[in-house]
């Protein structure tokens, strides 16, 4: 079936609601449904096993961490997200509203990947996120492609993304997920966005972005993925092979699932999607788990941990298609335990151990104070070919 791009979105400026930034959020195509039995949604979430979530969850499920989802909005009342979505910010301020079909589809999908908790304890239905006990802070910075208001907006660059990053950093975000980007031929760095990201990093906020879906269209650089300090996620399939659409560039940090990913929708149905948007959301969930287990880590340390513990590293340790390999939050949590300081304190010892020796015992030298050094690390885009997956029933095609 011919695929069509449905949600190419653009971000309006916070003070000029008609000014849009060319940021790609998603393409959504609904194909004929496949049958799914009662627990089919969970069974098809291959990323949970691939990312060793059961092992990571023995330490934490993300409690105490807030992930800001800068996107098209998030449906807080979705059964898989109830109780996990905080009061956010709408920097678009026009277009679709809650209840409209063009409201929060992409953002809800990303929130579900990060912090979905399913339909409740003992209920096999629904999407489980990588960090199901984390909180989602929604920040609306772009419109869905199906939003009729897009036709009225100018395609000039605005400040919504930069403003959203700063707002999230100032309102409790530990991780910022940017499943969006501009990888058009005219894409270029925006100083206001770069500065906003550096502001967030200085405040201790981890920033994750999708590497781009231009792998078959010239591998154009995508922003915000290319800004310094950002953890850029590329997409792989369940065999660990780079997805053909996934952009290959020098800024690639790690890879994550981006093919046949089960996503939640505000219509309370489920779809299979593909794209580096999904990969970014998985990496944000992984970063949330590491941060929950080791809250004192800096963004640079988390980035380095994810790089150093990634599985299936390319030959030579890194390449532009998969970065340092497949993200592994469980391994990163273990490694973080080895680098964090534990009970370090200044201590004084007598000259039995630290003096100048027995011959100098009468010299009158005092004890030597010392402190151990701290060890630390250095430091869009969901195009979904979607399949309805809903309680084992075959549904008709939806637009």
Question: How would you portray this structure in words?
Answer:
This protein is of the alpha/beta class. Strand 5, helix 4 (105-115) and strand 6 form a beta-alpha-beta unit. Helix content is 23%, strand content 17%. The two termini are 14 Å apart. The strands form five sheets. A seven-stranded parallel β-sheet has the order 5-6-4-7-8-9-10, sandwiched between helices. It has one domain (10-339): Peptidase S8/S53 domain (Rossmann fold, 3-Layer(aba) Sandwich). The protein has ten helices and 15 strands. It comes from Streptomyces djakartensis. Its main location: membrane. The chain crosses the membrane at residues 370-390.
Order of helices and strands: EEEHHHEEHEHEHEEEEEHHHEHEE
Strand elements, count: 15
- What is the CATH architecture annotation? 3-Layer(aba) Sandwich
Q: According to CATH, what is the class? A: Alpha Beta
CATH fold descriptor = Rossmann fold
For the largest sheet, list the strands in their spatial order: 5-6-4-7-8-9-10
The end-to-end distance, rounded to whole angstroms, is: 14 Å
Share of residues in helices: 10-25%
CATH superfamily: Peptidase S8/S53 domain
Let me know the largest β-sheet: 7 strands, parallel
Note the total helix count.
10
Number of domains: 1
The chain-level mean pLDDT equals 80
How many whole angstroms does the radius of gyration measure? Answer: 23 Å
Rough outline:
globular
Pfam family, one: Peptidase_S8
Protein name: Type VII secretion-associated serine protease
GO molecular function: peptidase activity
Main location: membrane
């Amino acid at each position: 079936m011919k695929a069509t791009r449905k949600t190419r979105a653009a971000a309006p400026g916070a003070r000029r609601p008609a000014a849009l930034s060319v940021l790609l959020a998603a393409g959504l195509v609904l194909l004929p449904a496949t049958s799914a039995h009662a627990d089919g949604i969970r069974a098809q979430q291959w990323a949970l096993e691939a990312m060793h979530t059961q092992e990571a969850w023995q330490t934490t499920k993300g409690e105490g961490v807030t992930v800001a989802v800068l996107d098209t909005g998030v449906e807080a009342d979705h059964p898989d997200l109830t109780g996990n979505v905080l009061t956010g910010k709408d920097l678009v301020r026009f277009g679709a509203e809650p209840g409209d079909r063009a409201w929060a589809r992409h953002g809800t999908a990303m929130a579900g990947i990060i912090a979905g908790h399913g339909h409740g304890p003992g209920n096999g239905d629904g999407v489980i996120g990588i960090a199901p006990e984390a909180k989602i802070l929604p920040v609306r910075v772009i419109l869905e492609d199906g939003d009729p208001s897009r036709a009225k907006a100018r395609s000039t660059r605005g400040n919504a993304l930069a403003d959203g990053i700063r707002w999230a950093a100032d309102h409790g975000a530990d991780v910022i997920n940017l499943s969006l980007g501009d990888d058009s031929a005219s894409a270029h760095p925006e100083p206001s966005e770069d500065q906003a990201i550096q502001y967030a990093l200085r405040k201790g906020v981890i920033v994750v972005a999708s590497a781009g879906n231009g792998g078959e269209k010239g591998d154009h650089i995508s922003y915000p993925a290319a800004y310094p300090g950002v953890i850029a996620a590329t997409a792989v399939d369940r065999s660990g092979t780079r997805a053909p659409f996934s952009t290959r560039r020098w800024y690639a940090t790690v890879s994550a699932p981006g093919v046949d990913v089960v996503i939640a929708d505000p219509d309370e149905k489920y779809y299979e999607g593909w794209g580096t948007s999904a990969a970014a959301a998985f990496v944000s969930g992984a970063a949330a788990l590491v941060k929950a287990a080791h809250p004192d880590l800096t963004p640079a340390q988390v980035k380095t941990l994810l790089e150093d513990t990634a599985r299936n590293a390319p030959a030579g340790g890194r390449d532009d298609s998969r970065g340092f390999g497949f993200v592994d939050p469980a391994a990163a949590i273990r490694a973080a335990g080895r680098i964090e300081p534990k009970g370090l304190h200044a201590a004084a010892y007598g000259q039995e151990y630290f003096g100048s020796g027995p011959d100098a015992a009468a010299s009158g030298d005092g004890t030597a104070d010392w402190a151990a050094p701290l060890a630390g690390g250095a430091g869009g885009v969901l195009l979904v070919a979607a399949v309805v997956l809903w309680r084992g029933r075959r549904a008709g095609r939806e637009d």
